Task: structure prediction
Amino acid sequence: MKPIAGVISAAVLGTALLTSPSLAHAAAPVYVALGDSYASGVGTRTYIADSGSCQRSTRAYPYVDAARVGAALTFVACSGARVSDVTAKQLGPLNSGVKWVTLQVGGNDAGFSSVITECAKPSWLGNCTTAVNNAQATINNTLPGRLNTLYATVRSRASTAKVIIVGYPRLFNGIDCNAATFFSPDEMTRLNATADLLNSRIATAANAAGFSFVNPTSAFIGHAVCGSPEWINGLSNPVSESYHPNTTGQSGYANLVDDHLT
Result:
């Protein structure tokens, strides 16, 4: 027979295990999602009310993947973010207890929105060639240094996390089906090549940092603007939804990123 004191102690311990979440269940792993509008979910048309102009969506791939793996999500990706914005405004949640980090940034540093706007104009009104040349020069000459510095900072703060860097899809299938835009076949080819160049520079920086890189190019082939089904919005109302992954596109991203989380 156990001593009475031992029985009481066991009963108290059992009660504590049942009533204390920290003892009864291990804490959910922490997932921090960083980046720009592609990471926040712009294009899905449904946004978390308190995310304001950052336009974070429950349909964005970080939200979808966090639910799949049972992670506690800290979602700080923000529409319009450049590398400098991620550095200044999004790295606060990173620490040695974070298990996963996803990071998608670089498109705005290359002037994604302004290049698309310029190339969508009729040839006599816009200067797509110069816009693309300037974007490619930034991608080749300026972006790599910015990414190297950012990635080093992420690693120093989230020292044990698995960091997953996410790239960008080609926007076009070779057809412009929107009556209000004027992309020529050559312009679409050059814009797709610029997306490939961007991914190449991001992948190089990610590999140098020891991070995983998710390249969405193959998965999105046939599903770009005017694709079937279309995973990327064409010219939309409001305009901010344009040339961003829709809900199906975000699901496609979620499937790609999920492979690196599990």
About this structure: The longest helix spans residues 185-209. The radius of gyration is 22 Å. The beta strands are 30-35, 72-75, 98-104, 162-166, 212-214. The first strand starts at residue 30 and ends at 35.
